[in-house]
Amino acid sequence: MITRVSACVVLSILALQGCDSGEIFLPEDVVVPNPKCELDSPPPAPEILTPTLGELKQPEDVIAIELAANASGEARLLDIEMWLLAGDGTPILKVWGAESTGDTLDLSSGQFELGFDALDSWKRYAVRARSREGGEFCDFGDWSNYQDFKIDDGSELYFDEDIIRDVEITLGQESYDLIDAEALPPDCVPYSRPYHPGTVTFDGVTYENAGVRVKGGCGSSRTLSEKASFKINLSDYSEGGPCPMTRRARGLKRITVNNQVQDPSHAHERLAYHFYDLLGIPVPRRAPIRVHVNGDLWGFYLHLESIDRRFFRRRYEASAAEGMVYEGTYFCNLTPDNKPALMGPETCFSQKFSDTCSTPDPNGDPFDYSPLRTFIDRIDSLTDQEYYTEIQKIVDFPTFLRQWSADAIMNHWDGAVFDILNNYRVYHNPFTDKWVIIPTGMDQSFNLNQRTVDPWQPGTVIATRCLRIQECEDAFAVALRETLNIFENADMVARTNAIRTQITADVLADPRQSSNNFESRIDRTITFIEGRRVFIENALSAHGY
Q1: 2 and 111 share a domain?
Q2: Could you tell me if 113 and 174 lie in one domain?
Q3: How far apart are CA 163 and CA 394, in angstroms?
Q4: Are residues 454 and 499 in the same domain?
Q5: Is the N-terminal amide bond of 44 cis, ω within 30° of 0?
Q6: ∠ CA 63-68-70, rounded to 5°
Q7: pLDDT value of position 315
Q8: Cα torsion at 249, 250, 253, 257 (round to 10°)?
Q9: How far is CA 230 from the centre of its chain?
Q10: 248 and 148 in one domain?
């Protein structure tokens, strides 16, 4: 017996296209499957586990894509795509795709689209997926949401705290003399120094005519006859113009090395920044480093990430990098008496980004003091009745409460919250229209019996006004207790001892080490850490919490 069927049916079964209305004849023993899906509905969108939302990947990383296991237990086929994102997060171009029956794969499991063969550094991408169950006659389900991630520039390599690197600076006599003459600021005021050409060797690469200058304020600055801190710009300063040609080491344009002369333990900054990391407060990356000048070992330093546009691009939406940043120094409160003029002159604030060598983003902040002026005015205009509600619209307030709490726990009197109101950047995020305070200069933290701060006696106006409102004070007390628990669980004593083990030989070999009490300072740091719970619990209890 011969079964007559439509050629169109057979060809559709074979997943071919272009069938016509002709007929073919099949032998009796051929079974023609029913092309109807037996499932009532397509499966839900799969859950993407990795890359995690906003994850930062290095260029050399294997990009693994992992999806949650199928809840139904049925066999499924996954359709996965990767898209390039625009600066605002909009998917603009598909760059890669794959089909898989497994829940885990990487880029080698699929194919790049025409014109692509790899993911580019310093770009944002997103993964999405959908699935099909029940075979080829069933429909795919809905696409998942896009799960975005970033490819970094590779500079993370230079902030591995387990590695002590070296940077070599060679200065001619003219540059040496100019840098030395500009080393000490005239007073405790914002002080700008120009770069001077020198030869810098870092990570096996030599940069001729790199820019070199001394850094530091009236507390930590030193001349070249002492242990000066340095800021290095790897760009080419040979032409002498205002806009040197940019050069980078794995994306890193600047190398900033702190002398730690105010912290003989060489541990406080690393401990403080680590604690901030745990709290989600944006702070520079860091790593230990040895500095050599003109062939001589200059000393043991701490390499700190520069707070530049890439700093913000790593931590926020891409558009957030176009916000303006101002540095506050020495008793610099966010009050009208410190409000600078539109174009300066600078009061205790200094503007950190300039349009001299860059093209302003039309959607970014203006290159003047107007954002800061507006910020100060908005804080000053709030009544006590509306303060707690409205300040949360102006400031990233949960982050600020954690920073206030952290500074109290670390006894950081030389920062943005207590006493000196120093060592901080205030940054406007245009994506959220909120301000964030970024702490820097953490050498005066973790000090035993030094200028003990009271958590309920802050200096910054943001905190002092908070304590006038019961609801805001309650929120601070909750944040303080939560932050204390994180501090306790972080095992800072073990971390301090690990730093001691790592750096002892380099500290002792430092020819410009100002004192020989390294071991005792480490011991005092541990004693300080061990006493913080009792101190903070007593402060909470004294205020009824």
Answers
A1: no
A2: no
A3: 40
A4: yes
A5: no
A6: 135
A7: 87
A8: -70
A9: 22
A10: no
Other CB atoms within a 10 A radius of the CB of residue 222 amount to 17
Residues 215 and 326 in one domain: yes
| Parent domain of 223 | 165-355+363-504+513-542
Q: Which residues pair with 211 in a beta bridge?
A: 197, 233
First to last CA, the chain: 90
Return the number of other C-beta atoms located less than 10 Å from residue 22's C-beta.
9
Residues 131 and 190 in one domain: no
Q: Is 159 within a domain?
A: no
Q: Are residues 28 and 114 in the same domain?
A: no
Centroid of chain to Cα 374: 26
Q: Are residues 179 and 308 in the same domain?
A: yes
User: What are the start-end ranges of the E strands in 7-46?
Assistant: 23-27
Amino acid letter, residue 495: R
CA-CA distance, 334 to 417, in Å (whole number)?
A: 11
Backbone angles phi, psi at 83, to 5 degrees: -120, 145
**Residue 204 resides in a domain:** yes
Host H or E run for residue 237: none
Query: What digits encode the pLDDT tens for the residues 294-352?
Result: 999 999 999 999 999 899 988 887 677 789 999 998 899 999 999 999 887 778 898 88
Write the CB contacts of 251 (distance below 8 Å, at least 6 apart in sequence).
121, 122, 152, 153, 154, 155, 310
Residue 366 to residue 87: CA distance in whole angstroms = 19
Instruction: Please give the single-letter amino acid code of residue 506.
Output: D
Cα dist from 101 to 34, 70, 80, 130, 350, whole Å: 23, 11, 11, 12, 56
Instruction: DSSP for 471-486, please give it.
Output: HHHHHHHHHHHHHHHH
Rounded Cα–Cα distance for residues 143 and 465 (Å): 48
- 38 pLDDT higher than 50: yes
% of the chain at pLDDT higher than 70: 93
* E strands, 152-195, in order: 165-170
Closest to 175 in 3D by CA, of 202, 201, 187, 193: 193
* CA dihedral over 369, 357, 318, 215, signed as positive or negative: negative
In whole angstroms, what is the distance from residue 321 CA to residue 363 CA? Answer: 11
Number of domains in the chain: 3
Six-digit token string for 404: 């206030």
Answer whether residue 160 is part of any domain. Answer: no
- C-alpha to C-alpha distance for 383 and 386, rounded to whole angstroms: 5
Domain boundary among 99, 117, 152: 152
- 179-204 tens-digit pLDDT: 999 888 887 777 788 899 999 999 99
- Please give the torsion angle defined by the CA atoms of residues 459, 464, 465 and 470, in that order, rounded to the nearest 10 degrees: 170
Tokens of 321: 């990098």
What is the distance between the alpha carbons of residues 271 and 443, in angstroms, rounded to a whole number?
A: 10
CATH number of domain containing 96: 2.60.40.3930
- The candidate with the shortest Cα–Cα distance to 249, out of 342, 159, 174, is 159
> 0.85 cut: is pTM over it?
yes
| 220 in any annotated domain | yes
Q: What is the pLDDT of residues 62-113, one digit of tens each?
A: 999 999 998 888 889 999 999 999 877 899 999 999 999 999 999 999 999 9
